[in-house]
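Technical note accompanying the year-one report. For the benefit of new consortium partners, we illustrate the data format agreed upon in the data management plan: each record pairs a sequence with a structure-token string. No post-processing was applied to the example shown here.
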Amino acid sequence: MNTLKTLFAGALLSGLSSVALAAGNPLSVHVLNLESGLPSPDVTVTLEKQAGQQWQALNSAVTNQQGRITALFPEGQALEKGTYRVTFKTGEWFAKHASNTFFPEVPVIFSADGSVPHYHIPLLLSPYGYSTYRGN
């Protein structure tokens, strides 16, 4: 019984620490595989900000075992109003899983207008389609 309590407490604290990290960083992402219904760990994701006609690289990270990156925005920097691009390197992920895909990457371009303190971008992914939305 004590082992069960310890496992439950550990899972709860792990979940709370993810929430705390996300609360301190203005941008998080989540990738779910629609084919299996499971999270997609090890997806490389890049973040860029539009500067005139160019894109300025800000950060890159890899999804965890839950398919999440809880803090994609660079630490210690404030999210400014503007246009950003999050690119999910889906071709690399499907290749690692010996699966074909029509989309070698999924770019999601969005405007941060400062109306919310945190932006969350979920990606629902399959080999021949995807969907995304502004989460919370």
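Partners are asked to follow this layout when depositing records. DSSP finds two helices and nine strands in the chain.
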